[in-house]
Structure formats: structure tokens, C-alpha cells
Amino acid sequence: MRDRTTIPLEKLTTSISVNLAEDMQEQGKEFITLKINGQEYEFSVGSRLGQVAPCETLSRTLRDRLNLTGSKESCGQGACGCCTVIMDGDAVTSCMLLTVECAGKEITTIEGLRDPVTGKLSDIQQAFIDYYAFQCGYCTPGIIMTSKALLDKNPNSSKEEIAEALAGNYCRCISQYHVIDAVKHVAEAQRGN
């Protein structure tokens, strides 16, 4: 077993955010732009009221500034997957990313999966309903976003690949079998099976 050094998250985040803030100041950057669910948002970075602090997480920005509350915060350490969003095609835990690190990135939240014109749910969202793949719903957005990122990259995912991709999502309520069946259904439908 390898020796692990534990650094408190607050200390690590503060250290990283100070370095990022200094880098941004050196580059003359005062604003960052994020593309979230197809819409661009520009944020002023700093420590004044209304500005995005260099130590603010993407999760806090999404929830507190943009009222995109679909992704949830639970562990605050990236271990449970409740806060998962898709950034540039990859499933990422938004509680572990600083907003300033996401400048120029494309981010999709659970709110961005439904059709913006008709309001129709995406195939993966509908499959979770059809297969009873949720109960309380707290972790469901993170599981759906992880599943979506997987299927976008590998629509031919096997049950084993689905289970492996979802290993970082923790749910206390349901059987993972329902979730795996829902994701497998969407994968098979995408393949035309």
C-alpha cells in the first residue's frame, strides 16, 4: 500500500486559488467566460461582492449564481458523484473544480439535457423514469450525467463498462441494476438493437 499524504481540501483550494488569481492578474484577465447548456456567461473574477472568487467551485457557481440546482452537493470531495456535470465531453465532479479553471469550457448540466424548445426529456432521462432507476432523486442527476458522457463516447457500452463508469456515483436508495438496465436500454436503442 502506498503512503498517502492528506491535505485538507480548504488548504489545497486556497493554495490553488491564490496561484490562479495571481496568474490571471499577470495575464490581465478580469473576466472568465463559460458556455453552460449552450449559453455563454461572463463572470468578473475577484473578491468583491458579486464577483466569482478564485476559490469558488463550479458547483457553487452553477447553484448559487445561475440557479442551476439540478446537480447536488453531497460529499464536497468528489467521491459521491452527485454534483457531476459534463465538461468538454467528460463527466466531472463540479465540487472539485474551481470556476476559474473552467474558463472557455463547454459545460452541460442536467437542465441542459432536455429539448429547449419542446421540453421533452432526453432519452437517458426518460429511460430512468421508464426503468424506475431512481427513488429520492438526490443523486440521480449525477448518475444521468455520468451515463450521458459514457454513451456519448461509447454508445456500444457493455453492462460491465456501464457499471465501471458509474462506480464513482454513490446512491443509498436504489438497486444499481435498475440504473444499469436503463443505461443499457439507451445504448441498445442508439445502436438500433
What can you tell me about this protein's structure?
Helices cover 37% and strands 12% of the residues. The protein is α+β, with helices and mostly antiparallel strands. It has a 5-stranded mixed beta sheet, with helices on one face. The relative contact order is 0.13.
Major β-sheet profile: 5 strands, mixed
Topology pattern, helix = H, strand = E: HEEHEEEHHHH
Helix vs. strand class? alpha+beta
Domain module count: 2
The CATH superfamily of the largest domain is: Beta-grasp domain
Fill in the keyword field for this structure:
single chain; 193 residues; Ubiquitin-like (UB roll); DNA polymerase, domain 1; five-stranded mixed beta sheet; 6 helices; 12% strand; elongated
Concise overview:
This protein has 193 residues and is an alpha+beta fold.
Topology, pairings included?
Layout: H1 9-26, E1 31-36, E2 39-44, H2 58-65, E3 84-87, E4 90-93, E5 106-108, H3 123-130, H4 140-153, H5 159-165, H6 176-191
Helix pairs in contact: 3-6
